[in-house]
């Protein structure tokens, strides 16, 4: 893998490129399997219709890189600042999908990523404040200590997700779906007392 290259329909398997730095690469319809890209830096790169399977992408740096139609499964993506990537305003749905991934300590602050798909993911200490994630599916996820404030969560499906500390007064939740037990925890923000 080299900077200033284009890779189309390429499969990368068992690559170990920790702390490596790359610039201006375009990946289209590429597959990354069992790769360790932790602490690598991809600046001004484009990832289009790619998949990552069982990869370690923790502390990946992605300044001005574009992500479109990407799926991540069984991958570790701890501590990524997604706000540094390039998210064009004309694409409110970037078709990102995460399945059985670890997304702890990630920042999505202020991003518009509608119809984001998160399934069976861990998002401990994630920052989702000020973002627009309307129409997303965030099912079977663990949001322990994650931050929501002035976040647009309209029509988000949170079915079977847990540890949601969402203040009903400071987030938009119209049409959102919650499991019964998780919905009860939302009432904590209203400073009311529940009795049996």
Structure overview:
The protein has 196 residues and is mainly beta. It folds into two domains: 1-86, E3 ubiquitin-protein ligase SopA (Pectate Lyase C-like, 3 Solenoid); 92-196, Pectate Lyase C-like. The chain is 4% helix and 21% strand. The protein has one helix and 13 strands, in the order βββββββββββββα. The protein has one helix at 180-186; strands at residues 6-8, 11-13, 21-23, 26-28, 31-33, 41-43, 46-48, 51-53, 66-68, 70-73, 96-99, 117-119, 137-139. The strands form three sheets. It has a seven-stranded parallel β-sheet with strand order 2-5-8-10-11-12-13, with no helix packed on it. The longest helix is centred in the C-terminal third of the chain and has 7 residues, at 180-186. It is elongated, with a radius of gyration of 17 Å.
Q: Any descriptors?
A:
196 residues; mainly beta; PA_immunity-related; Pectate Lyase C-like; Pentapeptide repeat-containing protein; 2 domains
CATH homolog superfamily of the largest domain: E3 ubiquitin-protein ligase SopA
Measured as a percent range, the helix fraction is under 10%
Strand content: 15-25%
Strand order of the largest sheet: 2-5-8-10-11-12-13
How would you summarize what this structure contains?
It comes from Vibrio ezurae NBRC 102218. This protein is mainly beta and 196 residues long.
């Amino acid at each position: 893998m080299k900077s200033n290259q284009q890779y189309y329909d390429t499969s990368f398997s068992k690559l170990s490129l920790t702390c490596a730095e790359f610039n201006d690469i375009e990946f289209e319809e590429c597959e990354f399997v069992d790769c360790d890209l932790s602490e690598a830096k991809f600046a001004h790169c484009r990832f289009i219709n790619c998949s990552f399977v069982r990869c370690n992408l923790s502390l990946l740096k992605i300044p001005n890189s574009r992500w479109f139609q990407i799926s991540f499964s069984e991958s570790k993506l701890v501590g990524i600042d997604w706000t540094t990537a390039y998210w064009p305003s004309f694409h409110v749905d970037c078709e990102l999908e995460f399945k059985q991934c670890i997304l702890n300590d990630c920042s999505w602050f202020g991003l518009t990523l509608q119809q984001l798909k998160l399934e069976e993911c861990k998002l401990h200490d994630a920052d989702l404040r000020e973002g627009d994630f309307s129409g997303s599916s965030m099912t079977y996820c663990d949001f322990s200590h994650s931050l929501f404030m002035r976040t647009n969560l309209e029509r988000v499906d949170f079915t079977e997700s847990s540890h949601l500390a969402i203040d009903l007064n400071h987030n938009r939740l119209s049409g959102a779906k919650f499991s019964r037990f998780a919905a009860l925890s939302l009432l904590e923000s209203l400073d009311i007392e529940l009795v049996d």
